[in-house]
Amino acid sequence: MTISKPMNTTLNIYGQQVDSRLLIGSALYPSPEIMKQAILASDAKIVTLSLKRQNPAEQAGAKIWQYIQEIVAETKGFLLPNTAGCKTAKEAVTLAKMSREIFKTDWIKLEVIGDDYNLQPDPIELLNATEQLLKDGFKVLPYCTDDLVICQRLYDLGCQVIMPWASPIGTGKGLMNPYNLATIRLRLPQATLILDAGIGKPSDACLAMEMGYDAVLLNSAIALADNPVMMAKAFAQAIVAGEQGYIAGVMQQRQTAHPSTPTLDTPFWHQQG
Amino acid sequence: MNVFINGQQISVGSEPTVLLALQHFLSTEQQKQSFAVALNGNFVGKIDYPQTSLNQGDSIDVLFPIQGG
């Protein structure tokens, strides 16, 4: 299903225009076939994937890779490899270089995890890795927390895309700190901001887009739904709704009620006993 | 000489290279697939496999594409 978008609102990833504001993960689906159907239903044009060790006898990874290649070819989309599992800048830089060789892309979703319990990014290692990778020609899409200063530092280093979390990966808790996220949007108006991780419901994605975020990256919310394909369509529509709501301009909240129906000539007005 | 590939200890010849170790470790089918290599935590490009020599106890990571979020 293709959702129509307002004119001139493509997503900008380091100068590459992308005709969808949903980035989707390829993990956790009930089967490769459902993964393919869900990704196609989501209208996403950017698919994330990773690298892992594989035993000589194991062939499952090859099949998944074949499916992902088919999806990207069919959608004329893009691959976005991640550095999941890395805990140091050195590990992340090495994995990024390995990804670049295999996937023939200089895009990298940079993850450097500092805590195993909530998979919170390590800001120090993240900045170190970002600096090295940008110097090496990578186009870095850093996964970070909703800390304004870290986002500013990443932007100052040269990241044109920044990806703060909504909440920890896989929790589905939605936007934990809307104030922080809105502040990042306000202070970094030129950055492409993608809300990444923790999204649970289509309304979470819609809210992010209403706040002016450029895109949303998610995986578990679709893959772990009872019906991933239907949920993918729901997210596609929610993201377009939020984007159009932002462009249309949301009304200012008011402290007191204002009648919607004109009060002039209201019947029975002020009739007393 | 012994080296480790993906955490598994294997015995290789007296003058091993990354290329020889991969040919020893990977199945014929896997050698045709997409993969990338790191030696002791440092990336090694495909073009360098034949001339990158190994030392006792070296650790090689061979990584393949897999689903990810």
Structural notes for this entry:
- The complex is a heterodimer of chains A (273) and B (69).
- Chain A is of the alpha/beta class and 273 residues long.
- Chain A has a single domain, classed as Aldolase class I (TIM Barrel, Alpha-Beta Barrel), CATH 3.20.20.70.
- Helices cover 40% and strands 16% of the residues of chain A.
- Chain A has helices spanning 32-42, 60-75, 89-103, 123-135, 148-157, 178-187, 202-210, 220-223, 228-248, and strands spanning 11-13, 16-18, 22-25, 46-53, 78-81, 107-110, 139-144, 161-164, 192-196, 215-218.
- Chain A starts with 10 loop residues before the first strand and ends in a 25-residue tail after the last helix.
- Chain B has 69 residues and is an alpha+beta fold.
- Chain B has helices spanning 18-25, 28-31; strands at residues 2-5, 8-11, 36-39, 42-44, 59-67.
- In chain B, strand 1 (2-5) and strand 2 form a beta hairpin.
- The longest helix of chain B has 8 residues, at 18-25.
- In chain B, 32% of the residues are buried.
- The interface between A and B is medium-sized, with 39 and 27 residues.
Helices and strands in order, then pairings?
The complex is a heterodimer of chains A (273) and B (69).
Chain A (H helix, E strand, L loop, with lengths): L10 E3 L2 E3 L3 E4 L6 H11 L3 E8 L6 H16 L2 E4 L7 H15 L3 E4 L12 H13 L3 E6 L3 H10 L3 E4 L13 H10 L4 E5 L5 H9 L4 E4 L1 H4 L4 H21 L25
Parallel strand pairs in A: 3-4, 3-10, 4-5, 6-7, 7-8, 8-9, 9-10
Antiparallel strand pairs in A: 1-2
Helix pairs in contact in A: 1-2, 1-9, 3-4, 4-5, 7-9
Chain B lengths: L1 E4 L2 E4 L6 H8 L2 H4 L4 E4 L2 E3 L14 E9 L2
